[in-house]
Amino acid sequence: xTDSVKGRLHVVVLAAGKGTRMRSATPKVLHEIAGRSMxxxxxxxxxxxxxxxxxxxxxxxxxxxxxxxxxxxxxWVWQHEQNGTGHxxxxxxxxxxxEANDRVLVLYADVPLLGAETLGDLAATExxxxxxxxxxxxxxxxxxxxxxxxxxVRRIVEQKDASEAERxxxxxxxxxxxxxxxxxxxxxxxxxxxxxxxxxxxxxxxEMAANEDKPVDAVIAEDAWEVTGVNxxxxxxxxxxxxxxxxxxxxxxxGTTVVDPARLDVRGMLDCGMDVSIDVGCVFEGDVRLxxxxxxxxxxxxxxxxxxxxxxxxxxxxxxxxxxxGDNAIxxxxxxxxxxxxxxxxxxxxxxxxxxxxxGERSKxxxxxxxxxxxxxxxxxxxAGTITCNYDGSNKHHTEIGDRVFVGSSTQLVAPVTVxxxxxxxxxxxxxxxxxxxxxAVARSRQTEIDGWRRxxxxxx
Length: 461
Ligand code: UD1
Ligand code: CA
What we know:
The chain has seven helices and 36 strands.
């Protein structure tokens, strides 16, 4: 944002706190919502405002926090001792290349669901100080917003410093605020720690502004969840459910059948064509695209894949790094691993694992098979228990199967090996040499019957 009247926008993200109540070796802001750290959510939202700069104040486990966002265009500021939010912002704006009329927006990295829209409303205000507040049924623990009789914001009082009467106020400080840089610098310089917690309170700048008759604005957030900070794993889990339900609602309203919006998890991007249906308990990770009329059965996990139109994925299938062309039938209990590709109308049935292998049009691998590092042509049938032996203990080898090949059940194809088109392989074969086009290969010991054989009997004495 480079509005000349209001100056440029600078963002300071507070992320130095310890997060003791998470009871975790992982720094709090690296705990995840929908598969992304809270810090990543916060920075995404900040970036959406296109600010002139973003700084993140780090302290506890700061090295890990910084490394988690490697490659992001942000500056890192250390706060080795957490002397309060005012202290954190002091450090956060130290040496900032800003002009008096620029604005500084303070965000908390542990408030992951704050939406770009609400934040946009705050960023659009033109007061010298703008607060994001919210009404809470139970405001315990939060700083209370104290207003004059004319409704203007007068100051913020922390829970621990508040009188009984002040504690009755239900409008609370979310902690997120924006202030004019020139004034902020001055006010931060004059902060004092004469309060119940012996800290430098950022919130004290509100009273300073009011005393100078500088306008203080408050944007009231509609939903408490949007500005809820995470202090423990229960809060994290609750926000996760809210986030997921909202995604499910958006999908449903965009035309996808979500059998139960409370039982869907999308950790990344899910793009659905027309008339897609998703049964309960599915998890989508990374970038997933489902074509028109795709039906996903219950309890499937799909990661970074593209399922072609009119395909059916039956229950308990696991699909990762896969592209299917369409009209495919997959599962139940199929496992498609990275590099698997199904051509149009190919079928993969129960307890089948496919890895780095392409299955041709209309070909079927219906039961209990492993196909890895292979190319299977069109119109093939791989019987139950077909195994490509692709690994010799050191290296992986390729199996090439032509078109219209019939592989009998319980066949091992010892790679590298090629089976020509129209070949047939007898059940129970261990194929170690190439099979020619149209040939029948049988590689198993012949069945014999032994004349005069008798079953041994128990000795008696
Ligand atoms: C703060 C606000 C309070 C508000 C509440 C909302 C102040 C004085 N109080 O209180 O009005 O209702 O947030 O949750 O601002 N942090 C640092 N360095 C520090 C201190 C904090 O980086 O020295 C970070 C924390 O990691 C956290 C955020 O700032 O992300 C808020 O700190 P926290 O201690 O939770 O503030 P509260 O006391 O809850
Ligand atoms: Ca807090």
